[in-house]
Amino acid sequence: MSDQKKTKKPSRQQVYTLLVEIGRKDGDGLPDKATGAALMCFASGIDEAEAVRETVAILKQADTNPLDVTGYGTLAEREAEGHEIDEEERALMARALDENSVIIAQMTPFFD
Question: pTM for this structure?
Fold first, then answer.
């Protein structure tokens, strides 16, 4: 008999940076006079399309109205483009990967 340990298959999950624009909806939690908001999210997925689908689904469950999603790629892709990524952002990305989740890192409400 062999004493080889089963090696865990490496995860194909990656974390994608997404900017989601949301419109108003009853119960969305946005400030009273806001017309919508931009949400900076870190979402895990096998590819960016999956990360977008998961993010939109979770935001809809949270009673928000997602209108548009812009993808900024993975950590490696952002670094290759010269984006500066601080330690706090890196920690949130690592958390999204570890938890296989969507993390809203920043919310900026829009006002007329």
Answer: 0.86
